[in-house]
Amino acid sequence: MQKPEFKPVSELTYNQAVNELDTILHTMQSDACDIDLLATYTRRATELLTECRNRLTTTDRELQSILADLQQ
Predict the structure, then answer these.
(1) Helices (H) and strands (E) in the chain, counts
(2) Which residues make Cβ contacts (< 8 Å) with residue 21, sequence separation at least 6?
(3) How crowded is residue 27: how many other Cβ atoms within 10 Å of its Cβ?
(4) Rg of the chain, C-alpha, whole Å
(5) Which of 42, 45, 40, 38 is nearest to 21 (CA)?
(6) Does the reported pTM lie above 0.90?
(7) Burial of 17 by CB count in 10 Å (0-12 exposed, 13-18 middle, 19+ buried)?
(8) Residue 52 contacts residue 18 (beta carbons within 8 Å)
(9) 11-45: pLDDT as tens digits
(10) What gap in Å lies between CA 56 and CA 45, rounded to an integer?
């Protein structure tokens, strides 16, 4: 099986990253998962999770700042 080509994580929208994570999860859970690609999928999932977590944290901080400004 050929190693999959991935778009850089920074170029994905949040929804695209989540959808790719879902696809990777289903692939890894299937009987058709190529064991030779397991590390590649795991590495990519880790990159996607880190990016999603960073974006959620950034958005949370921005929202807290906006709400704090409203209370003044």
Answers:
(1) 2, 0
(2) 45, 48, 49, 52
(3) 16
(4) 16
(5) 45
(6) no
(7) buried
(8) yes
(9) 999 999 999 999 999 999 999 889 999 999 999 99
(10) 16
